[in-house]
Design brief:
345 residues; mainly beta; 5-stranded antiparallel β-sheet
Length: 345
């Protein structure tokens, strides 16, 4: 039993690699055989990144952002025995609407995969008069039913919480504009039925810290712990040569997840390796999924590298929570008082 309790199932076959002796500066370390999915993985797809995985029937399954050779991103299904070596289906995921009619998104990228009760939900960014959130559900990964768009455009980086809170579904998102958004804060919305969304709350915004001074956005589904909801997110900085995407971590209140309890002023992973600094979009580490073993506290983190390949990293939940708490800076803009003050200005 670890220092902090994890409200997740045991996952004895979680992928894992021990922390190397030289990795002392940050709580997260990379898989030495990265990338786990390289270029041109299947015919018609040139790059796979910013994708999500989950345990399924003793093995692993995932929804992957596949950049087609015509440049349009779409979602592909993948399977794995060990969550490291992946086989991707050659055909795009086929969606139907709630009446069983075919539904084909114009494009679909950066999917998240979250299990709530007995259903798996896929959340992605698609086209609805501009960038907007798409939502679908499945129980067997054979039939994928597209649900109504949760929000009006423009919005990205949406992720469901893995359980209802106060009887409501909860979703994080990052309202944006229609371009390569040079701004963005994380907001929380709730719904009784996945159709009607409201009670929107600001969670946290960009910060004075250089690595997240332009914008931030939600990453994998929050992880329920005895300390609160452990949230990984991406933070973006601006340089003379473009944006840099790093990974940060925060802890949200377990009953009111719009309240930030702790937020690390330091990133936990930033582009350093060649496959992260060189690619279609250089200098990107973008988290979309985690696997967690409640028995050992081990965590595997999947992230897109340079918008080109898929990387894997590891940590212990105890170590990550301790790191966030020890390096925490909760800013006035992340508190209810700060939000009320901002609204008055």
């Amino acid at each position: 039993m670890g220092k902090y309790k994890l409200f997740t199932d045991p996952l004895p076959n979680i992928p894992w690699q021990d922390k190397p002796a030289g990795a002392i500066n940050q709580p997260v370390w990379r898989y030495t055989q990265n990338p786990v999915i390289g270029r041109n993985p299947i015919p018609g797809v040139s790059r796979v990144f910013n994708s999500a995985v989950a345990p399924y029937e003793g093995k692993f399954i995932g929804v992957f952002r596949g950049e087609q050779t015509n440049g349009v991103p779409f979602i592909y299904l993948g399977h794995s025995e060990d969550a490291v070596h992946w086989t991707l289906d050659p055909e795009k995921v086929h969606f139907v609407d709630e009446n069983g009619k075919d539904f084909a998104p114009v494009y679909a990228y950066d999917p998240r995969l979250v299990k709530v009760e007995d259903t798996y939900y896929i959340i992605w960014c698609g086209d609805f008069y501009g960038a907007a959130i798409g939502l679908a559900k499945t129980k067997d990964f054979k039939t994928f039913t597209r649900l109504e768009n949760p929000f009006i455009p423009f919005n990205r980086n949406a992720v469901l919480f893995p359980r209802k809170i106060g009887g409501k579904y909860m979703m994080l998102s990052r309202p944006s504009d229609s371009g390569h958004t040079p701004f963005g804060d994380i907001f929380l919305s709730e719904s009784p039925d996945l159709v009607y969304w409201g009670r929107h709350r600001h969670v946290m915004g960009k910060s004075p810290e250089w690595w997240e001074s332009v914008k931030i956005g939600g990453g994998p589904a929050p992880i329920e712990t005895s300390e609160g909801w452990l949230l990984l997110y991406h933070g973006v900085s601006s340089t003379c040569d473009g944006f840099v995407y790093s990974i940060g971590a925060a802890i949200l209140d377990i009953d009111e997840p719009s309240i930030v309890k702790y937020r690390s002023e330091d990133f936990i992973l930033t582009p350093e390796e060649e496959y992260e600094t060189r690619g279609f979009v250089p200098n990107v580490c973008f988290p979309c999924a985690t696997l967690v073993d409640s028995a050992t506290g081990r965590m595997a983190i999947y992230y897109g590298a340079a918008d080109t390949v898929t990387g894997l990293a590891f940590t212990y939940v105890d170590d990550l929570i301790d790191f966030v708490k020890e390096h925490s800076v909760v800013r006035e803009s992340d508190t209810e008082v700060g939000r009320q003050t901002s609204q008055k200005l």
